[in-house]
Specification:
Layout (H helix, E strand, L loop, with lengths): L1 E6 L4 H10 L7 E7 L5 H8 L4 E3 L8 H15 L3 E4 L8 H6 L4 E5 L11 H8 L3 E8 L9 E8 L6 H24 L3 E3 L5 E3 L4
Parallel strand pairs: 1-2, 1-4, 2-3, 4-5
Antiparallel strand pairs: 5-6, 6-7, 8-9
Helix pairs in contact: 1-6
The structure holds 5-O-phosphono-beta-D-ribofuranosylamine.
Length: about 200
């Protein structure tokens, strides 16, 4: 399976996907990494692994629609079967999402449906939640609202700072994102026509 990964920053989730794709029995390969920021460290990770990279800066476009049209064109050239958003800090237009419906995944640092949006670790600490985590989900037009595929939980410790909590969650992200991509590549995972996650077999 040909995977495209979209990033904006450090790309540690991209790294986890690269590592998984390099295992001998991997059912997927990364065809392209696209970043909306030229300074994203993830681009270096990709280059180091010999993966093609593209930068598509949002600053070069007047509207979200224009950006997403250009993004779709880049993607079509790489011809991926699945797209993974990995710290891609852009909201995609419904038109774009629709085009890739069922073939577009995201990882979000919370136990969705709780804490959609930004600053999840801070908000979990403020709420005093004892448990936090991460979710891989199919992307739909509703921001962080698509059906979940796999979640991982971590404890929130008494004296946690947002950064410590984020690191604990991130470690789990690196475990579950490659898992979900592998399931998809093995044809065990689909978004059903009624908008639900369908996963065959036990993980
Ligand atoms: C991750 O926490 C991801 O869940 C969130 O942004 C962060 C990206 O980290 N959407 P990285 O770029 O993969 O290191």
């Amino acid at each position: 399976l040909r995977l495209a990964v979209l990033i904006s920053g450090s790309g540690s989730n991209l790294q986890a996907l690269i590592d998984a794709s390099q295992q001998a029995d991997s059912p997927f390969e990364i065809a392209v990494v696209i970043s909306n920021r030229a300074d994203a460290f993830g681009l270096e990770r990709a280059q180091r692994a010999g993966i093609a990279t593209q930068v598509l800066s949002h600053r070069d476009f007047d509207s979200r629609t224009a950006y997403d049209t250009a993004l779709a064109e880049l993607l079509r050239a790489a011809d991926p079967e699945l797209i993974a958003l990995a710290g891609f800090m852009r909201i995609l237009t419904p038109g774009f999402v629709e085009q890739w419906q069922g073939r577009l995944l995201n990882i979000h640092p919370s136990l969705l449906p709780r804490y959609r949006g930004l600053h999840t670790h801070q908000r979990v600490l403020e709420a005093g939640d004892p448990v936090h985590g991460a979710t891989v989900h199919f992307v739909t037009a509703e921001l962080d609202g698509g059906p979940a595929i796999v979640q991982a939980r971590v404890p929130v410790l008494a004296d946690d700072e947002p950064d410590q909590l984020a690191a604990r969650v991130l470690e789990q992200e690196h475990r579950i994102y490659p898992l979900a991509v592998r399931w998809f590549a093995e044809d065990r995972l689909v978004l059903s026509s009624d908008g639900r996650t369908q996963l065959d077999g036990e993980p």
